[in-house]
Amino acid sequence: MASRPRGSVNDRPPKWKLFLRRQRWTLRPLAWGCAGMVALAAGTILLRNAPPGGSIASVREWIGTITANAGMRVNDIVIEGRANTPEPFLRAALGVRIGDPIIGFSLERARADIEKLTWVAHATVERRLPGTIVVVLWERRPFAVWQNQGKYVLIDRDGQPVTDEEVAKFRHLPLIVGPGAPDGARVLLDALTGRPAIQSRVVAAMRISERRWNLRMKNGTDILLPEGHEIEALDRLLTLQQETALLDRPLQSIDMRLGDKLVLRPRPAPTDKPPPPPSPNKPV
Q1: Could you report the per-residue pLDDT of 130-188, keeping only the tens digit for each?
Q2: For residue 204, which of 247, 233, 175, 224 has the smallest C-alpha distance?
Q3: Do 176 and 135 belong together in one domain?
Q4: CA–CA separation, 87 vs 70, rounded Å?
Q5: Which range of residues forms the domain containing residue 78?
Q6: With a threshold of 0.85, does the pTM exceed it?
C-alpha cells in the first residue's frame, strides 16, 4: 500500500483546533477577565463573612493582588467638585495611585480620610470597573475672615475654621475680629448683606466681650450695636443715613445700645500746636 505523502489534507488538524490557535490572543485576556470577576465575587463573600479586625485588610490585599494580575488596576482618577482643596493633600488622603490594584483598598477609609481635609465637608469615592476611581467633593464655602490675636483664619457659615493658609486670596470676604466672633457672625453678616448701603461702608465687625458687636466704618466711626438687637439697630441706622446722612458726619462713635436713644461722640478737634521738635538724644 502506498504511503500518504506528507503534508496532505488528511494530516491537517481539525478546524476547531485551528480556530483556537488563531483566537488564543483574544481568549487569553477574556480568561483573565473571567478569573478576575470570579476572584472579585469570592472576595466579596469573604469580606462579608470575615471576622472583624486586620483579617479584612489581608483579604482585601489578597483580592487586589489577584484582580490586578487579571488587569484590574487603576488607570484613571477622576476628581469632581475640587476648587480650593490642595490636590496633593487630596491624592495623599485617597491613598491610591495610577497602577495600583483597583480592588485592593477600602472605599470607606478613603472617604473618611478625605473628609478629614479642612476644605472638605463631604466626599464620595467609588470604583468604576475596570480601572477608574471617581472622587466627588462638596467643599466648605468660606464665609468670612476671622482675625484673632494677630492671626487670620477662614471660617464657614457655621463658624467653623476652614484654613489659615493663603487667607489673603479671600480679602474680599467680610472681616470679623475678636474672641468668639465666629459664633454670631452669620446673623450679623447676613443682615449687612441685606443692607448694602451700610455694608459698603463697613471695614470690620468687632466682637465685644463675646456678646455684642461694634462696626468699624471706613471713615473711622465705630457703631456700637445693642446685644441681641442688631437687625433693629441696623434698620434704624439705615433710616438715619437716608434722612440725615449720619454716617457721613465726622463722628468718633455712634452708640445705639440705649434703646431709642442715640449717643453721638464727635471726633476730637485737631490741635493747632506744632509737633514738638525731636529729642537731641534720638535720631531724626
Answers
A1: 899 999 999 999 999 999 999 999 999 999 999 999 999 999 999 999 999 999 899 99
A2: 175
A3: no
A4: 30
A5: 53-139
A6: no
